[in-house]
């Protein structure tokens, strides 16, 4: 999955839990949960939606990698669909 | 118009879900009411046939106004009459699985009392005997906690002076809203009702509020209530009133305790790893469960302060402070939280948050809370010093679950901890009891598998 595709998938999942959030002006390195005011339930819903979208279970241990938009894009691009070159 | 929380004075009927002639059962949604905070689904308190809808959609009316009548039997069932049986009685009926509509009331005007419910429940085995460890207390005159939020009980509590005055001034006491402690009608309330600006009794807005406002203003507010800005403003006002009342009336005391969550977080992690993502528990669910169970163990935290007395609740209906997107705060309850498994509590929490934000809460959920929990940890806060929701007597706060250096057994290690706090009503309990409560919460969280 390209970073662009990953971003689209993430934005859809975020839109489900925070429909009013402004994702366009989002700083890629800002803390997602703080910036979008997601509580733990919102975040769990986001992660669940994201996992469903990419067809892969996301463990709690992966949460730190989902702290920012940039990190989440990297994670999804690496995990979702065909493995990308950036995968570790 | 039921009182959907102590901060509600008026409500607007948004829509009717029933029409005259419809059969309704107790618990059916009959209407949607807009409080200043949210659209709430109002349940029928009894079973029968809808006779008449008395309030049109769009109308804003004071709490206590009869919204509709439900037959077949007279007076017994009006959808909007929250006061027909007190919340304590409804709790009891709910707990014993008693249909209030089927109970013959022996109280004033056929009001169903606790004794009636106990009697009805005694005629068959209680379905959930374990839910209430304590024996049912002999009905302490069933003081309605909702009355503190000034709903319209069938028989209003009236000060002696007010009663005499009402006689002299020919004021109908059932039409007067009490502004005294616990909704007691005082002399001033009677005087106001006797000489209203437009000849119509105008309900007082709670202590310290202007007693009357022009009808045109009300209509304007009702309309504004639907628009974003107007609604936010109204919600702010409702919260302001309630919190001001809390700080004015309740002598708060505060305690804090840092809880080692190593056991709880380890248990959660293992559990979540083994389950589907959708079944995952968040730490908040476990913290809430502990808060609810602790409330059953330490007296003085779970109930209501009304009529200069503490009235313990039989069950723990755990109020959860939920912030609404776009501002505002709402505190619906997870009913019977102490008896739920963490999984069920988590489901309840999810459901409640989703419905709170989409504006589809049920009336009972907004009036039932016996103790409230607030959790600001998600915003990075370490310690929350809460303000109690009257007429409740305690508010439990949890901050952020964070890794901190902790000394244990002569060693310093890094462990997940959370700061738990208690804001409690000093009229209902003392610091010693509060300390025992927080200790119980900490203790329960050391054995998460038993929660």
Please explain how this structure is put together.
The complex is a heterodimer of chains A (88) and B (451). Chain A has helices at 3-17, 32-35, 40-54, 69-79. With 88 residues, chain A is mainly alpha-helical. Chain A has one domain (3-79): Non-ribosomal Peptide Synthetase Peptidyl Carrier Protein, Chain A, CATH 1.10.1200. Chain A is globular. Chain B has 451 residues and is of the alpha+beta class. Chain B has a domain at 252-450: Chloramphenicol acetyltransferase-like domain (Chloramphenicol Acetyltransferase, 2-Layer Sandwich), CATH 3.30.559. Chain B is 30% helix and 20% strand. Chain B has helices at residues 87-96, 114-122, 160-169, 187-194, 215-224, 228-249, 262-274, 283-297, 342-358, 363-367, 431-445; strands spanning 10-16, 23-24, 29-34, 39-43, 48-53, 60-62, 68-70, 252-260, 303-306, 309-312, 318-320, 322-323, 329-330, 333-334, 361-362, 371-375, 394-398, 402-408, 411-425. The A-B interface holds A 18-20, 33-34, 37-41, 44, 47-48, 51, 57-60 and B 269, 272-273, 277-278, 280, 282-284, 323, 325-326, 349-350, 353, 375, 377-380.
SSE layout and pairing:
The complex is a heterodimer of chains A (88) and B (451).
Chain A: H1 3-17, H2 32-35, H3 40-54, H4 69-79
Chain B: E1 10-16, E2 23-24, E3 29-34, E4 39-43, E5 48-53, E6 60-62, E7 68-70, H1 87-96, H2 114-122, H3 160-169, H4 187-194, H5 215-224, H6 228-249, E8 252-260, H7 262-274, H8 283-297, E9 303-306, E10 309-312, E11 318-320, E12 322-323, E13 329-330, E14 333-334, H9 342-358, E15 361-362, H10 363-367, E16 371-375, E17 394-398, E18 402-408, E19 411-425, H11 431-445
Parallel strand pairs in B: 4-15, 11-16, 16-17
Antiparallel strand pairs in B: 1-3, 1-6, 2-5, 3-4, 5-7, 8-19, 9-10, 11-14, 12-13, 17-19, 18-19
